[in-house]
Design a protein that fits this description.
The chain is α+β, with helices and mostly antiparallel strands and 201 residues long. The protein has helices at residues 30-39, 76-89, 106-118, 126-129, and strands at 99-100, 103-104, 134-135, 147-150, 160-166, 169-174, 178-183, 193-198. It has a single domain (27-198), classed as endopeptidase domain like (from Nostoc punctiforme) (endopeptidase fold (from Nostoc punctiforme)), CATH 3.90.1720.
Amino acid sequence: MHAHAHPSKSGNNCAVTRNPARTRARRPGPVLLCALLLFAVTGCTWRPDPRFRSSPYEPAATPARFSGEQYGTMDAAVAERFKEQIRLLWQAPYQWGGNSHQGIDCSGLIVKIYREAADVDLPRTTRELYHTGAEVDDAAPLHFADLVFFSLKQRGTPDHVGLYVAHGYFIHASTSAGVKLAKIYDHPFNAHFIGARRLFN
């Protein structure tokens, strides 16, 4: 069954309807990245419909000081620092345990971006990150810099994380292709999404 995704309208009139069944698979390039960064935090949000959890996983082992905490407002200055980090880390190769442009993994990418852009030190593992910040309701739109989580190994636990950008795209560290863009509603992510967290208002 194919799902249609409908972004919400907020601020400017930039809503777009996309049908993943009609979208050809292609590897997003730097031009698309730049275009998406222009749209980020300009009023365009995206609510994949339906966006459902593939698992009711509820992690327990995360320091209480991180759970539910938010770190400020995503104003224009903060957003530009996030965008700059995304550009700097774009196409960095994958390296398990890595945290630099020379090599980085999925949770390392999140930790690096938040540390450099917002001076926020986050937990290092995907499971810990899953309990960081405020939970985004499944019916709510995703915003720039939200963390999106997946259970790709079908064990019901979060094992992959990315940073939401705009219009259904997020950036993540792929084991096969390094830091790249992906569509949250495309295979395999659409079937393995388990939740999103918001660290900035």
